[in-house]
Design brief:
single chain; two-stranded antiparallel ribbon; Dna Ligase, domain 1; about 150 residues; Arc Repressor Mutant, subunit A; alpha+beta; 5 helices
Amino acid sequence: MNELTISYEDFIVKFRKTITSLGLKNSNQREYVLKILFQSNSHLSVDEIGQEVLSKCSHKISTATVYKILKLLEELKIVNCITIGKNDKKVYELNLKSHHDHMVCQECGNFIEFYNEDIEKLQKEIAKKNNFLINSHTMIIYGICDKCQ
């Protein structure tokens, strides 16, 4: 359902240009984090990202560094952060898939990604009625999945 909208090679070229245009130096650690997120089919926590970098890139990266990288990627709208569960655990995904929304179980943390044209249409109608220009949106529905009920 949610196919990536760009290849990794094209993405990393654009990312490097963006970093340079901001006057920042690119780092291997940023690219490791991006590669892990790009290859992942799930939403990953900071610890999981660090473990995957070590496992797949043979590079140890501190938790603080992962947080710092993710903060920058969020500010650049490259990464989405979602809060799940009773302890407000945060997980991350690249913002490169076709648009979708989430339902998150607050008991087990499982996700359901979905897209509904009626919801999208209704959001546009509501914005229009309120003379509001939508730049982007994220919809997350929190509740309890059928397995945890």
